[in-house]
């Protein structure tokens, strides 16, 4: 009986130790799995933070580059416009100088002579603003008479500042040599040239 009791106690101890070991191993395995999950979650979170930071950095770099490009474009456009304005001022001053009283009268006489020599041209009207007509009429008429040009009339029109217009076929067609028209024509020619020069620079 005593032997059986000892064996029973021994058996109970053995089973208790095995159960404790199994429980301990289960707890260790669960803790290990939890630790691995925590580490994996932390790594995933760290990777996400790094990826977000990288994406944000790339976005900021691209945004900065775009802003620099836009600023460069704006600066170039502003510079081109400034150059175009300066050219317009220079052109206006030079056209005005060419259209001074002395030059303008001779220029009108030369243009009228060219038109009058065309066989299909019958009547020519030279249109000037009132101020120019009053100051140049005598010189122009003397020049026309001297060159024996006929069918030419001088008219006043204050719709433009300086220069002149030539009307033919009773005003059916006219050619604009006003200061504004000449400056516009030269500006249109120079603007593409300026743009090309700026691109090459």
Ordered list of secondary-structure elements with their pairings:
Layout: H1 2-98, H2 101-116, E1 124-128, H3 130-146, E2 152-156, E3 163-168, E4 173-178, H4 179-200
Parallel strand pairs: 1-2
Antiparallel strand pairs: 1-3, 3-4
Instruction: Please list the strands of the largest sheet in the order they lie side by side.
Output: 2-1-3-4
The rough form would be described as rod-shaped
Distance between the ends: 114 Å
The proportion of residues in beta strands is 5-15%
Major sheet? 4 strands, mixed
Helix content: over 70%
The chain-level structural class is: alpha+beta
Nutshell version of this structure?
This protein is α+β, with helices and mostly antiparallel strands. The protein has helices at residues 2-98, 101-116, 130-146, 179-200; strands at 124-128, 152-156, 163-168, 173-178.
Features:
alpha+beta; 201 residues; rod-shaped
Structure description:
This protein has 201 residues and is α+β, with helices and mostly antiparallel strands. It has four helices and four strands. It has helices spanning 2-98, 101-116, 130-146, 179-200; strands at residues 124-128, 152-156, 163-168, 173-178. The chain has a four-stranded mixed sheet. β3 and β4 form a beta hairpin. α1 (2-98) crosses α4 and α2 (101-116) packs across α3. The longest helix has 97 residues, at 2-98. The N and C termini lie far apart (114 Å).
């Amino acid at each position: 009986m005593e032997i059986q009791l000892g064996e029973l106690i021994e058996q109970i101890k053995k089973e208790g130790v095995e159960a404790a070991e199994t429980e301990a191993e289960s707890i260790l395995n669960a803790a290990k799995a939890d630790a691995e999950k925590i580490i994996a979650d932390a790594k995933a979170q760290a990777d996400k933070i790094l990826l977000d930071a990288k994406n944000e950095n790339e976005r900021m770099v691209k945004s900065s580059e775009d802003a620099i490009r836009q600023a460069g474009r704006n600066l170039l456009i502003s510079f081109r416009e400034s150059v175009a304005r300066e050219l317009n001022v220079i052109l206006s001053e030079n056209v005005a100088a060419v259209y001074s009283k002395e030059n303008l009268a001779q220029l009108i006489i030369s243009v009228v002579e060219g038109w009058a020599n065309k066989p299909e041209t019958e009547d020519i009207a030279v249109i000037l603003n009132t101020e120019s007509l009053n100051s140049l009429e005598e010189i122009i008429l003397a020049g026309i008479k001297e060159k024996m040009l006929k069918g030419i009339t001088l008219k006043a029109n204050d719709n433009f500042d300086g220069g002149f217009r030539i009307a033919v076929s009773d005003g059916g067609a006219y050619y604009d040599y006003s200061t504004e028209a000449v400056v516009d024509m030269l500006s249109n020619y120079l603007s593409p040239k300026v743009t090309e020069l700026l691109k090459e620079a």
